[in-house]
Amino acid sequence: MTAYLGGHLVVEVLEKEGVQKAFCVPGESYLGVIDGVYEHPSIELISTRHESGASFMAEAYAKASGDVGVCMATRGPGATNLSIGLHTAMQDSTPLVALIGQVERPFMGKEAFQEVDFEAYFSHLCKWTVEINEVERIPELMHRAFYETRSGRPGPVVVSLPHDMLEDVTDYTDSQSLKVNPPVADDESVAEVMAALQHAKRPFIIAGGGVIAASAQEELAALSEKWNVPVVSEFRRFNVLSNFHKNYAGWLGFGAREGLLEAIHDSDVVIALGARLTQVSTQNYTLIGNETDIIQVDISPSSIGKSFPVQVGVVSDAKGFLQKALQEAATNIDPTRQAFVEEMNNAYIAHSTPPSPKGDTAYVEMNSVIADMMQAVPENSILTSDAGNFYGWLARYFRFTDTKRYIGPTSGAMGYGLPSAIGAKTALPDYTVISFSGDGGFMMTMQELETAVRNQTNIIAIVVNNNMYGTIRAHQEKHFPGRVVGTSLTNPSFVDVARLYGCDGVKVERNDAFLPAFYEALNSDKPFVLEVQTNPEILSAGQVAEN
Ligand SMILES: Cc1ncc(C[n+]2csc(CCOP(=O)(O)OP(=O)(O)O)c2C)c(N)n1
Ligand SMILES: [Mg+2]
């Protein structure tokens, strides 16, 4: 037995859980934990410039590494700043543990300095919130926090740590991480699903984050080939299947292909696999028609039937389900399915092929940028993005594979692009990591360039500059034509700003300047900001300039 300070014991448990990196803004309320990191050099504590950056970095670190992300913040002001990344982790089902300093136990309830009741505040935002009030319970509750965040449908867990509790002392010998055993469908349920699929004429598999979390891409590819089923990815879940796979039928979300939406609406069987059929993916819950049999396979019982009534619901980890499904014999499959799969894939390829650039234009065309990136992005790359209209081109024209990955917020959080790139690059330093942001979103978290410079996290940040909150401008022009208000922006030179932070940077104003600038970014030994000046008249992918 050894005597431990509470703050040190928290970090001891982090080490037992395999934590290697944590992202924070330091605060006096959890100084004991920070001092614990000093004792444990195997854990690197990365200070950021705003708690939103810390939470986004931890969230993307989790997505890139496949393990839990960890962030830390101080009482009320730190915790409330942190919440945007926790909300993203909730909507995106990302395993994330947030350690938050709390006011001293004897002062609780007095509206003490920076006091917030975290159990109340985070109860809806997070999967679980726990306050550790006795130092002896640190190992039990910290391990439980990691188990909770990893198991079932992953999600964020907040651990509230009263300042004075972290200074108490307790004896401790050992403890260990609790292994997660994901549920796997029973044979009968698998057989029932496959029987429903057998005779379907125009079925789809809608695959979501559950496939990526379970690393079940290979099994999904094998099943879709064996059973002749087209695969569609949910909003921002491109990596369920290589987008070059012959059975890939495209993606759901803002700007999804109309023909695909109609085909899903008219299909006889839809299997939602690790997909919770979100509002954005399902076009406000209209995607699937009343005549369609919906089969949902999900790791979490509470996701089943949440968005649509389903005919069959199966609680299973995606990989375990697919492995069993692959053992079923694929006999008497409707012979017209082959042509259907080809039709869907051909339409996807046509829709995702960018039009040829017009050549010498006054602005950079996003079609051309993405076409260039398709050519120049190296293997083993991660592209991250914010929310915004610029994303429409990336979604439509970039094709992701298992080595060209996408990390983005299904929560639609602006400001995610840059910090998530830093988080992903921290997890996978050998990857090329490129963030994609609009001028609006980039300036929400731009200060994290300093975090990147200080830690030599050499990401490439592409800023698509149209000097406006373009998405909202587009909505304004549609719903309130001619009444523009609150959506115009002026910006500093992003390249000058980048240089002041110690990054490299280039501004691109013509199509043919993009590729050389992109290669310069790839070869840079500093974080790199690549500003792309686009035409403010063209607000969405597929729109043609009226000039
Ligand atoms: C944190 C946050 N605040 C506000 C919004 C609402 N919103 C969605 S897109 C957008 C504008 C994005 O502007 P910009 O980043 O410049 O990209 P653009 O649409 O111009 O391409 C806004 C304000 C949001 N999604 N997230
Ligand atoms: Mg903009």
Commentary on this structure:
The chain has 547 residues and is of the alpha/beta class. It has helices at residues 6-16, 31-39, 51-65, 76-92, 118-121, 138-150, 187-198, 209-213, 217-227, 258-265, 318-325, 337-351, 366-376, 391-397, 417-427, 439-445, 449-454, 470-479, 494-501, 511-523, and strands at 2-5, 21-24, 44-47, 69-73, 96-102, 128-131, 156-162, 169-172, 204-207, 231-233, 248-251, 269-273, 293-298, 312-315, 381-385, 404-407, 432-438, 460-465, 504-508, 528-533. It has a six-stranded parallel beta sheet with strand order 3-2-4-5-7-6, sandwiched between helices. Strand 4, helix 4 (76-92) and strand 5 form a beta-alpha-beta unit. Bound molecules: thiamine diphosphate (TPP) and magnesium ion. Magnesium ion (MG) is lined by residues 438-440, 466, 468-470.
